[in-house]
Amino acid sequence: MGQAIAELALQMGSEVKRVAAESGVQLEVRIGVDNGSVVAGVIGQANFIYDLWGDTVNTASRMESHAQPGTVQVTERTYQCLREEYELLQRGTIEVKGKGPMRTYLLVRRRSYNDTPPRSRHSQPTAPTTSAEMDDKPA
Length: 139
Known about the structure:
Layout: H1 3-23, E1 31-33, E2 39-43, E3 49-53, H2 55-65, E4 72-75, H3 76-82, E5 86-96, E6 100-110, H4 118-122, H5 131-135
Parallel strand pairs: 1-4
Antiparallel strand pairs: 2-3, 4-6, 5-6
């Protein structure tokens, strides 16, 4: 569950970097991902709009708004779904408006066949573990 969104997020980030390099325009994207149930529907009478609602949508939006430019930030439950097939770095616990403290991760890439298993990789400090450390870096 979530692999299609993970692939989309990674490809969007790569494409934005490619376009920025080709155009010389400084572009960066922030992406937030969460897993869970949503309510979907079509609204409108003359112009129809398909929309999604629910806590999962709100949490994904918070992941995006609290992310650093150029990153894909995911929730703990998304991390649990992706950790076997993707490399994720623990960002740490951050204060999320309307949610409180949440442990978040940064989606880095799909794992290759020869990558170290997630258990040993997760125990090694490979990224900042607090939001302050991450936020102090220039964008």
